[in-house]
Amino acid sequence: MPALTELDRAVRPPWAEVPLAVRSAVEVELAAPVAKAWGQVGGYTPGLASRLALADGRKVFVKGLPASHPTAGSYRLEGQVARRLPEDVPSPRLLFTVDDEWIVLVFADADGREPNLRPGSPDLAAVLAALNRLGRTLTPCPLPDVPSVLDDLGPLMQGWSQLALAPHADLDPWALRHLDSLIAIETAWQPWADGDTLLHNDLRPDNMIRRVSDGRVVVVDWSYPCRGPAWMDVVSLVPQLVLAGHPPADAERLVLSRPALNQVPAWAVTGLAAAWAGYWQLNSRLPEPPGSIGLRDYQRKIARATRRWLVHRTHWS
């Protein structure tokens, strides 16, 4: 599977194009001027994402976008969540926010790279270890005011039901042939959605960094938090592994043996796979968000990967 490139991602403004008043406010909080900035790739939101080297030798990571942008609310929510994460959570520490003309989040620097999930990658063990640590450090949920996963995702994860209202000509033959069955199982995860873990809810390789300093994986971009069972974040890695080139059976062997899955029935996992597949199938058909490049293409790819996993689990012809 080809790796994503800068051309597949959002068009991000460099630090130098951020309004002077915003840059000055950040430097005042940092108590040091910025000496150098490096733009970072990853993700699909068209906001600032840069590592900054300060004149006193420190480094930080900044992300932000104009307060008037349609997705500004997700940045504000991410800041509220990151500020309250326990110290032992594998995630960079939020240093401060600037919320005025722009919303800017300033994090402790995490020098590293996006982990490689391809078969045989040495990064896989570090990613799985990070998932285990997330479950341990975020249970019980430290943010009691976040929505439950059922309230948050339940209305969204009914893509097959929505697609059936006006079947698309480009829907693949397997999905068309089994559309009624997919509708029947896409809510099977819901009876197992009760839990008291803070879920990240968007675990992808570009929301992870494998640090150079110690090889550990940290998780970033807490824009869609909710409260639920730890197994849901763990299982979300399976379609990412399939997308990275793992056969579905191998991806399952790596992930479904995790302790968080001990009491979860197979049909609930299958239902969640169906719900994700329908969600991505439906959303990949929407217009590209303003300033984003590649989001819908990514959703088409992850929808196909999840369908492969679903075929493996259901054995439907």
Structure overview:
The radius of gyration is 20 Å and the shape is globular. It is an alpha+beta fold. 38% of the residues lie in helices and 15% in strands. It has helices spanning 20-30, 72-84, 123-137, 149-153, 159-165, 173-177, 179-185, 230-235, 237-243, 248-255, 266-283, 295-314; strands at residues 34-39, 48-54, 59-66, 94-99, 102-108, 112-113, 197-199, 208-211, 217-219, 226-228. Helix 5 packs antiparallel against helix 7. It folds into two domains: 6-109, Phosphorylase Kinase, domain 1; 113-314, Aminoglycoside 3'-phosphotransferase, Chain: A, domain 2. The strands form three sheets. A five-stranded antiparallel sheet has the order 1-2-3-5-4, with helices on both faces. The protein has a three-stranded antiparallel sheet with strand order 6-8-9. A two-stranded antiparallel sheet has the order 7-10. It holds the Pfam family APH.
What is the CATH class designation of the largest domain?
A: Alpha Beta
Strand order, largest beta sheet:
1-2-3-5-4
N-to-C order of helices and strands: HEEEHEEEHHHHHEEEEHHHHH
Domain tally: 2
What's the end-to-end separation, in Å?
25 Å
**Uncertain runs:** 1-9
What gyration radius follows from the Cα positions, in whole Å? 20 Å
CATH superfamily of the largest domain: Aminoglycoside phosphotransferase (APH), C-terminal lobe
Task: Compute the average pLDDT.
Answer: 93
Number of strands: 10
